[in-house]
């Protein structure tokens, strides 16, 4: 079976890391699969995967189990097996420079200091893939970056965490409904959710009839 797109959800395997900031990529990937009744299986020793259909696009969702810094090894294996071009890959990753609650999508560019993305660029020898960056910050100045990304989300951040996961999941769904340029514009400007708010407000208004 041929697949059209590969979505990569970045994170670290094991219960120890399940609620850490570095694992928000996994959280979003699992939510997307759950929402669309896609089963996640251990397809390989170095990654899990699920198959789903979004707006007639056949998609593989991959979860590298190599630990973050070696994510590229799993991505390379999936890339080779399914023959999906780099330009048709979307990587879901955490972004400490963004506040929790913000999501942003871009194509190409540097690794931005993210070890998982750096590993993918190195193994694929290319960087022309999409990145869905999910805010996990702000990072307190007194905490070093490694400690911060490997820390658990706090209880009082649960509402914002859930909002981030919802927005990221909706962003992925929207990406396949419209063309990539419009999707990135509407996601990054927040227009995607402004539309939803306007529709809800209209529905909540009392009828004049």
Identify the CATH homologous superfamily: Peptidyl-tRNA hydrolase
Structural class call reads alpha/beta
Mean pLDDT: 93
CATH level 1 name: Alpha Beta
Tell how many strands the DSSP assignment holds: 6
Please sum up the structure shown:
This protein has 209 residues and is an alpha/beta fold. The chain has helices at 24-35, 71-82, 115-124, 145-149, 158-175, 180-189, 191-204; strands spanning 5-9, 47-54, 57-64, 89-99, 103-107, 130-137.
Describe the structure.
There is one protein chain. This protein has helices at 24-35, 71-82, 115-124, 145-149, 158-175, 180-189, 191-204, and strands at residues 5-9, 47-54, 57-64, 89-99, 103-107, 130-137. With 209 residues, the chain is an alpha/beta fold. The chain has one domain (5-204): Peptidyl-tRNA hydrolase (Rossmann fold, 3-Layer(aba) Sandwich), CATH 3.40.50.1470. A six-stranded mixed β-sheet has the order 2-3-1-4-6-5, with helices on both faces. α1 crosses α5. The protein is globular.
Task: Jot down its keywords.
6 strands; Rossmann fold; 39% helix; 209 residues; alpha/beta
Secondary-structure topology with pairs:
Elements: E1 5-9, H1 24-35, E2 47-54, E3 57-64, H2 71-82, E4 89-99, E5 103-107, H3 115-124, E6 130-137, H4 145-149, H5 158-175, H6 180-189, H7 191-204
